[in-house]
Amino acid sequence: MAAGESETASSQRLPGEQSVEAGAGMSGADPLAQLELALQQAQAKAAENYDLYLRARAETENMRRRSLEDVSKAHKYAIESFAEALVPVADSLEKALQDESSSLGALREGVQITLRQLRAAFERGHLTEINPVGEKFDPHRHQAISTVASNGTVAPNHVVTVLQKGWMISDRVLRPALVTVAQGS
After folding, report:
1. What is the pTM of this model?
2. What's the chain look like in SS3?
3. Of 15, 20, 34, 51, whose CB neighbour count within 10 A is largest?
4. Which CATH superfamily, name and number, covers 126-185?
5. Would you list the domain boundaries of the chain?
């Protein structure tokens, strides 16, 4: 090989790669044996990289599977805390039905306590009521059932009466309030 060819060949080698001539000059070993050794080293490195690839792929698949399971559990048990808050309400209602006394006052008091428990459960679940008497009609939160003539006490396009309260979860309408609206002139 000429001097110019040797420089060109050495400039095209990858870092850490030895030339066959340099290895032959240093160790005096057969160039074929050196190539076989280099091939074995490359195959070992390829096998190691393939093993790392397979492990990374398996880990990625396991993470994906665990994520899907977590999402599934989150959907399945999302109302768990809300349900826990409602259980005492159900207990109170069952006790009210089991009560044999004929005292209307005691029954009324029990219902009021149960209603307070229910409202507390709603509050913990971020469930708020929509009771828009006197408010401006909002089609996103209210459903107008009818319109009535404005009598001067309620401004036009404002809620006159609430036929059924609405409910919101956080900032999303669960059920709009059913209302009658004052008619504009």
Report:
1. 0.57
2. CCHHHHHHHHHCCCCCCCCHHHHHHHHCCCHHHHHHHHHHHHHHHHHHHHHHHHHHHHHHHHHHHHHHHHHHHHHHCCCHHHHHHHHHHHHHHHHHHHCCCCCHHHHHHHHHHHHHHHHHHHHHCCEEEECCCCCECCCCCEEEEEEEECCCCCCCCEEEEEEECEEEECCEEEECEEEEEEECC
3. 34
4. Head domain of nucleotide exchange factor GrpE (2.30.22.10)
5. 126-185
